[in-house]
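Hi all, posting the design record for the shared folder.

TITLE: backbone redesign
STEP: 1 of 1
STRUCTURE INPUT:
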């Protein structure tokens, strides 16, 4: 993914009202190819827990995007 694309998605994530601070940070770091283990060390959790948080955040994000698409 190009830096421009990563920057675009990162700004959308950072401005999301549906995600909490940790979810935003995890999604942005994952966009930039940071490993689950490295993120886990920062939050003192396992890489598996980071993956779970990432999955929950993506589901929230996708759900909101679908709502906007269907009802706007």
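Okay, here is what came back for every position:
SEQUENCE:
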């Amino acid at each position: 993914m190009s830096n421009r694309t990563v920057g675009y998605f990162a700004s959308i994530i950072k401005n999301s009202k549906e995600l909490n601070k940790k979810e935003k940070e995890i999604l942005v770091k994952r966009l930039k190819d940071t490993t689950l283990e490295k993120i886990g060390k920062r939050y003192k959790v396992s890489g598996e827990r980071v993956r779970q948080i990432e999955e929950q955040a993506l589901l929230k994000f996708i759900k909101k995007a679908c709502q906007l698409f269907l009802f706007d």
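COMMENT: The domain at 3-71 is CATH 1.10.10 (Arc Repressor Mutant, subunit A).
Let me know if anyone wants the other runs.
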